[in-house]
Amino acid sequence: MTKETYLDHLNDRIAEIDHKIAEARDYLENGKPTERVVAAGELTLLDADRSKFADRLEKARDRHAHEWSTLNTTFHEDLDALSDAIEAWIVKHRAIKSPS
After folding, report:
1. Long-range contact list for 76-79, CB < 8 A, 24+ apart?
2. Is a pLDDT exceeding 80 seen at residue 42?
3. Where are the domains of the chain?
4. Which pLDDT does position 51 carry in this prediction?
5. Where is mean pLDDT largest: 23-27, 38-42, 61-65, 78-82?
6. Are 31 and 96 in contact (CB under 8 A)?
7. What is the mean pLDDT of residues 40-58?
8. Rounded to an integer, what distance in angstroms lies between the CA atom of residue 95 and that of residue 42?
9. Could you tell me if 69 and 1 are in contact, meaning their C-beta atoms sit under 8 angstroms apart?
10. Exposure of 15 by Cβ count < 10 A (0-12 exposed, 13-18 middle, 19+ buried)?
11. Angle, helix 33-60 to helix 68-93, in steps of 10 degrees
12. Separation CA 22–CA 59 (nearest Å)
């Protein structure tokens, strides 16, 4: 796999996480005010983790191709963990949504 292929795939994963975070923020908009504070704080931390990951990926773009296989594995593990954390947040805070 080429460096560009790795980058494209990782950028696609970041886009998926961005979409999940946007959905979670929309979900918060309809939440009960008393429960939204904690949930919003947790979501902000997840969003910060996403930003840190994107920064790491940007810095890694300049690395040599022979390092990309190892970097890609690490990045995938980190993205999987972040995606799982966002999914857990959604499940945990599903109850904050106000009844329609």
Report:
1. 76/10, 76/13, 78/53, 79/10, 79/13, 79/14, 79/17, 79/53
2. yes
3. 3-95
4. 92
5. 78-82
6. yes
7. 90
8. 15
9. yes
10. exposed
11. 170
12. 25
The DSSP line for the chain is --HHHHHHHHHHHHHHHHHHHHHHHHHHHTB-HHHHHHHHHHHHHHHHHHHHHHHHHHHHTTS-GGGHHHHHHHHHHHHHHHHHHHHHHHHHHGGGBPP-
49's tokens: 């983790």
pLDDT at 11 over 70: yes
**99 residue type, one letter:** P
Under a CB-based contact definition with an 8 Å cutoff, are residues 65 and 3 in contact?
A: yes
Question: How far is it, in rounded angstroms, from Cα 95 to Cα 19?
Answer: 20
> Tokens 């696609």 — which residue?
12
Do residues 47 and 25 make contact, with C-beta atoms less than 8 angstroms apart?
A: no
